[in-house]
Amino acid sequence: MANRVASNPIVLDTFTSDVVISTGRVKVSKITIASATAGDIVEFIDKAGNPVFRLVQSYGTPGSSTEDFDQFVFENGLTFDTSASTGLGSGDLVFIYLA
Fold first, then answer.
1. What pTM did the predictor assign?
2. Please, are residues 95 and 11 in contact by the beta-carbon 8 Å criterion?
3. What are the E-state strand segments in 23-85?
4. Residue 64 and residue 33 in contact, taking contact as beta carbons nearer than 8 Å
5. Architecture of the domain whose range is 10-98
6. What pLDDT, in 10s, does the model give residues 14-35?
7. Is the dihedral of CA 64, 65, 71, 74 positive or negative?
8. Cα radius of gyration rounded to whole Å, the chain
């Protein structure tokens, strides 16, 4: 499979490079990690490279961690940061639900 950034939810399953979700203002209602290992980290940065959000997988096999928002707005873009995200690999998924 390949990352799907033109859908809602956005689905990330390939974690070899940064994935730009938006370079401008974007509203997000939920981010979910569906991952096999507790401790996996998903981190997002803005268009300037500043960290803006981090979610840590808190459950073991099988499991998922979810952060629900009430239409949280990332004003300066949103990019999945592969260099700060750890533990993600084959079979892991990140869902980003746009508001």
1. 0.89
2. yes
3. 26-35, 41-45, 51-56, 63-74, 78-80
4. yes
5. Sandwich (2.60)
6. 999 999 999 999 999 999 888 7
7. negative
8. 12
